[in-house]
């Protein structure tokens, strides 16, 4: 690694390809750790919406939780992988069904910025 300095202050570094790969792997692992830390809060937000907006009762909420928790844990494990995997199965399957969450996200963000 070569450190970049101006007037004695560090402003960056040139990494070798091996160092970049190691850094990317560590970043992915840290994302997995953050995902795990926030897992129950994310699930709680979804369960609250299902309860308040769609009338899910305790039985349906628990069923959803048990299924969804497996998926969110799989997502956390995905962050730990060394391969560069851009497509997540659920996103892909939804898109096959004509549901493009990336387009929905664009609509939402465009709407919020107006």
Number of domains: 2
Instruction: Give the tally of β-strands.
Output: 2
Quickly count the helices: 4
Category from helices, strands and their pairing: mainly alpha
| Strand numbers in spatial order across the main sheet | 1-2
Shape: elongated
Q: H/E series, N to C?
A: EEHHHH
The fraction of residues in strands falls at 5-15%
Q: What's the main sheet like? A: 2 strands, antiparallel
How would you portray this structure in words?
The protein is mainly alpha-helical and 114 residues long. It has two domains: 2-83, no CATH class; 86-114, no CATH class. The protein contains four helices and two strands; from the N terminus they run E-E-H-H-H-H. It has helices spanning 17-54, 58-79, 89-96, 101-113; strands at residues 2-6, 9-14. It has a two-stranded antiparallel ribbon. A hairpin with a 2-residue loop joins strand 1 and strand 2. The longest helix has 38 residues, at 17-54. The termini are far apart. The relative contact order is 0.08. The model has no long low-confidence stretch (mean pLDDT 83).
């Amino acid at each position: 690694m070569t450190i970049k300095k101006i007037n004695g202050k560090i402003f960056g570094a040139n990494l070798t390809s091996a160092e970049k790969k190691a850094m990317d792997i560590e970043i992915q692992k840290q994302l997995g750790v953050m995902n795990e830390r926030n897992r129950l809060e994310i699930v709680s937000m979804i369960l609250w919406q299902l309860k308040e907006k769609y009338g899910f009762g305790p039985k349906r909420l628990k069923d959803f939780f048990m299924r969804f928790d497996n998926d969110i844990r799989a997502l956390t494990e995905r962050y730990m992988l060394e391969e560069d995997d851009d497509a997540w199965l659920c996103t892909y399957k939804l898109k096959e069904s004509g549901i493009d969450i990336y387009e929905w996200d664009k609509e939402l963000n465009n709407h919020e910025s107006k």
